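Below is how a single chain appears once it has passed through the pipeline. First comes the sequence as given, then the structure the pipeline wrote out for it. We keep one example in the README because the format questions we get most often are answered faster by looking than by reading.
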Amino acid sequence: MKALSLKQPFAELILQGKKVIELRKWNTRFRGEFLIHASKVSDVDAMKRFGFSELPAGKIVGKAFLKDVKKYESEEDFLKDNDKHLASREWGNYGFVLSDVARVEEISCKGKLNFWDFDGEVKLKR
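Resulting structure:
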């Protein structure tokens, strides 16, 4: 299954349903279900801003469905979705629109750039 590495707290915010658009500097033709991998390195400023002190890192923590990619052409469009992506423009102009998010049993593994393949078994968290 495809996987995508995200810095904390953004992986957690997606799992909580507070972030429904993931920003990237690159586009993708991929659509479908993928695993959410929490990178080993967290965004320290964002952790403080969103009130987190510690979150899982270096682990697959969830799954989601990438249903569309939105390109932000203007600052106005970008700001209109601020409550959906929760990030600054420095993260990119492409918004990966997510749905069907679920937590999975955590699996320690190394992440990679872009979408990457994970071959292990994944179980939904109960």
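The domain at 2-108 is CATH 2.30.130.30 (Archaeosine Trna-guanine Transglycosylase; Chain: A, domain 4).

See the next section for the split statistics.
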